[in-house]
Amino acid sequence: MESRPPSTQEGRGLSRRRFIGRTGSILGAAALGAIDLPNAAALPQADVIEPGAQVTALVIGTGYGGSVTALRLAQAGVDVHMVEMGMAWDTPGTDGKIFANTTSPDYRSFWLRTRTKQPLSNFLGFPLDRDVPRYTGILDAEEMGGIVVYQGRGVGGGSLVNGGMAVTPERSRFPGVLPSVDADEMYEVYYPRANSTLGVATIDPAWFETTEAYKYARVGRKHAQRSNFRFMFVPNVYDWDYMKQEAAGAVTKSALAGEILYGNNHGKKSLPKTYLAQARATGRVTISPLHRVTSVTPAGGGYTVTIEQLDTSGAVTTTKTVRAQRVFFAAGSVGTSKLLVRLKGTGALPGLNNEVGNGWGENGNVMCGRANHLWDPTGALQSSIPTAGIDNWAAGGAFAEVAPLPTGIETWASFYLSITKNPHRGRFTWNAATGKVDLDWQTAWKQPSITMAKSIFDKINATEGTIYRTDLFGTYKIWGDHLTYHPLGGAVLDKATDNYGRLHGHPGLYVTDGALIPGNVSVNPFVTITALAERNIEKVIAEDF
Ligand code: FAE
């Protein structure tokens, strides 16, 4: 059934009983009780901020950095208000589901677009993008100079749309990622704390060997190992027991039904089920969804924060100003960088230093597919949750995630998202003429990433006698070099801020998200973003509150 946008915020206050009644036909009682709470019950209730409110700590954004910050402040006895420009994602659409399937994007899928912009634009020569109603959907494909930056929008930020791959970088690489941070502390205290609060776990190896859903990853392993590359299992925040039950037909399918890019209706331990659930349980954290911060400026020892309330068409319905003693920028690398660069450029925060906007990178993301032989199928059923990687970082500067292509049909394709040691860094600057923030990235800067990814896939193709797919990113285009899932930097730790995220020039302002990390973490970034936020907020609570 084609799902349509609700004309109002239909069902916002839906009770748990009514929710179960509506979805009872697709959700078994066991699934509701024991394993998977529907989002309506698990998500924090909206508690919208009033104009003129006075707030002790205001957090901009509800992704990883924001959620860690809110939880730890609340546990220390500080009242927190979180402002999130995206939706709460706690209300089912007309099809009874909160999130749309990856294979059939609808109004819920994209942030304020009238046509989808899917990372894989083509398949077998056919363009995949289609018209959708403009809506405050979950995935933002933000087009900036020479690059499309994909980001999650809603309470939970990137955790709503990401692949859940929860990777701690190798200890030896860490000093190259964050040189001013004590690595021992990170690996002894903050990475373990982040992994345990996020609910990170590794797939049962015995199940991996037998399930149809990971045939594609086993083919990926075989090809990697035959070319002498290091293959590794990658931990994830998806509930592996739930996935096993999906395979057994005992619960409603999510990963095995191709859900990922536009949200998982079940199984994924996204932030609303982990950090944000704990934060709400303290009774000290409130959240305003569909509210966007546009300005922060000093006022009487604290800050005046301007916030626009949006409706689901993206129109501003109200503009509010509130007072906050302290403000934590957690709007993601792009969101935080753009806000800070604009606030410095317009004179709202004149004390920010010239490092603001610098050091932005895309974690060297580049995608490609390989065409396998007919005797080497990758499976019609593919779990949308990746769990394997090929590590050639030391020799070739690339770590490749063995990614799914969950089309529901046999494709004979192996698909990869590579993270590479791309040395290029972009810079955000204020453009007074247009009143916008520009990013000086160029698509040509992806060439080093392609070269590094080729260090793996040229060799595999030579060993296997196979070729690259040319039908996934356009016609006769091998490399997905126009995008990133992993924006990082723009307000770099120990440069735009002190060594704990305090912004220079304005006491009481902090950066807590991926903007702190200078462009690259050598693996998927959210565990590092979470662990760094844990480290920084511990120091800030001890010294500033
Ligand atoms: P983020 O999670 O982006 O949260 C920022 C929040 O702030 C968002 O909810 C915004 O809507 C909100 N916001 C922005 N501006 C404003 C404003 N002005 N006012 C109010 N709210 C605002 O930031 N990483 C992994 O480690 N493993 C993966 O498997 C993985 N897969 C990915 C797949 C996809 C498709 C995508 C898009 C990303 C993936 N990532 C993955 C990246 C990961 O989700 C990302 O690094 C983190 O979410 C970044 O966390 P932050 O806290 O920096």
Question: Can you tell me about this structure?
Answer:
With 545 residues, the protein is of the alpha/beta class. It is 26% helix and 20% strand. It has helices at 16-23, 29-35, 39-42, 64-75, 174-177, 183-198, 205-210, 215-226, 240-247, 275-281, 332-345, 393-396, 447-464, 526-544; strands at 54-60, 80-83, 122-123, 126-127, 139-144, 147-152, 230-233, 285-288, 291-299, 302-310, 316-329, 366-371, 388-392, 398-403, 413-420, 428-431, 436-439, 467-468, 483-484, 509-511. Strands 1, 2, 8, 9, 10, 11 and 20 form a 7-stranded mixed sheet that branches. Helix 4 (64-75) packs parallel to helix 10 and helix 6 crosses helix 14. The termini are far apart. Mean pLDDT is 92; it is low at 8-45. Residues 60-65, 83-86, 150-154, 157-158, 161-165, 261, 292-293, 330-333, 335, 339, 485-486, 513-514, 524-526, 529 line the site of flavin-N7 protonated-adenine dinucleotide. Residues 484-533 form the Glucose-methanol-choline oxidoreductase C-terminal domain. Keywords: Cholesterol metabolism, FAD, Flavoprotein, Isomerase, Lipid metabolism, Oxidoreductase, Steroid metabolism, Sterol metabolism. Residues 68-342 form the Glucose-methanol-choline oxidoreductase N-terminal domain. Belongs to the GMC oxidoreductase family.
